[in-house]
Amino acid sequence: MENYWSKIEEAVESTARLVIYYEGQIIEPLYHSTSGGMTEDSVNVFAIDSPYLRAVLSPYEESAPKYRSIINLTVDEFISKLTDKYPDIQITKENFYEKIKLIEKTDSGRVKTLAIDDVIINGRDIRDLYGLNSTNFQIMYDKNLNLIEIETYGYGHGVGMSQWGANGMAKQGSSYEEILKHYYTGIDLRRM
After folding, report:
1. pLDDT tens digits for 125-163?
2. Burial label, 29 (beta-carbon count in 10 A; 0-12, 13-18, 19+)
3. pTM attached to this predicted model
4. Angle at 31 between CA 41 and CA 102, to 5 degrees
5. Radius of gyration of the chain (CA)
6. What angle (nearest 5°) sits at the alpha carbon of residue 12, between those of residues 164 and 191?
7. How many whole angstroms separate alpha carbon 40 and alpha carbon 156?
8. Whole-number pLDDT of residue 27
9. Which one-letter DSSP state was computed for residue 64?
10. What is the number of other CB atoms lying within 10 angstroms of the CB of residue 65?
């Protein structure tokens, strides 16, 4: 903190009383750690369609500590967690690969819905169930090793400003105004 205190003071003082508006209303400036390369539309996460919270590219995130993560589970561990929460699912090691189908992804590439056996599950529920960093994931199955690998990109809900993306844009010379207008579509900045 001591190393950055003067920068923090400058940032606070230079943006004092600065407010972000969309069509005359103060916005809810949602943010997250790392988007994995593209942010998400608010409607896909919060079921609220905020026109200023649209999916946009988010460059410069590759050095983020949670840009990409992998968890490994045995098939038994994966199935056990799944059937504990969804007891109607009929899934075994033998039919595992046939029982999981991707139904829909969002425009940003995140998992919106999966069908597991005859049960439709949204990506957020899978994220919560397995403790994934985001809904931008893919499930891979190695039958020979009896392992499930879940690879995830990004960290957080993905809506609004990516902190790692904003940091990268700043390091490339973008101003705070350019960064905010990039992540919050169609906004205006005004002093109160």
Report:
1. 999 999 999 999 999 988 888 899 999 999 999 999 999
2. middle
3. 0.88
4. 40
5. 20
6. 105
7. 10
8. 97
9. S
10. 10
The full length of the chain comes to 192
In the chain, pLDDT over 70 holds for what percent of residues? 100
List, in order, residues 6 or more apart from 18 with CB less than 8 Å away: 189, 190, 191, 192
What pairing do the DSSP bridges indicate for beta strands 147-153 and 161-162? unpaired
CA distances from 49 to 11, 18, 52 (A): 30, 24, 9
Residue 79, helix vs strand vs coil: helix
Sole residue written with tokens 């029982």 = 99
Q: Which two tokens stand for residue 184?
A: 């919050």
Sign of CA dihedral 50, 54, 59, 65: positive
Q: What is the per-residue pLDDT across 155-185, written as a single tens digit (0 to 9) for each? A: 999 999 999 999 999 999 999 999 999 999 9
Q: Which tokens hold the place of 1?
A: 């903190």
Beta strands in the chain (DSSP E): 18-22, 25-26, 31-32, 68-74, 100-105, 111-116, 119-122, 137-142, 147-153, 161-162, 188-191
